Amino acid sequence: MGSSVVDMDSTQYAAAVADKTLDALDKAGISVASAARESGIPRSTLDRKFNSGKGIQALTVRELYELARVGAHIQPRAAEGRGVMSDTRIEFAPALMTRDIAAFYLSMSTRDLDRLRDAGHLTAVGDSKRVKYLKKDLDAYAESLPERATP
Known about the structure:
There is one protein chain. By secondary structure, this protein is mainly alpha-helical. The chain has two domains: 5-70, 434 Repressor (Amino-terminal Domain) (Orthogonal Bundle); 96-144, Orthogonal Bundle (Arc Repressor Mutant, subunit A). It has helices at residues 10-27, 32-39, 43-51, 61-70, 99-105, 110-118, 135-144; strands at residues 96-98, 132-134. Helix 5 crosses helix 6. It is globular, with a radius of gyration of 18 Å. Residues 73-90 have low confidence and may be disordered.
């Protein structure tokens, strides 16, 4: 399985994600051309991200989601050890989410998420240049929404 996530920088991690994604498609008998056609991701984009080998162009969360939908019939296997992108699924949300993931988590656009932050409904935190949100704050916002009456 190689080194753990802790031992990798973001470029190495992006390359490992691309390798594991391509391996999963190969094991499922799905070509890159089929994955591109079925996911709506341009073939040239997938070729660039899978063939970079250096992880310079990381797959986005949306691209990973679309590729997972293409290969949805793949059954997860038990992990053989602790390593990068093991074949087990993560069944919980991370405690700290990027802007894109937070918007996806709340089922809204990043623009709407930014408006909520600007209006003071959500507070961003950060340990670097990227805006991040605490899961508990996102959950609190979702719980604060009024119930909709059923027609």
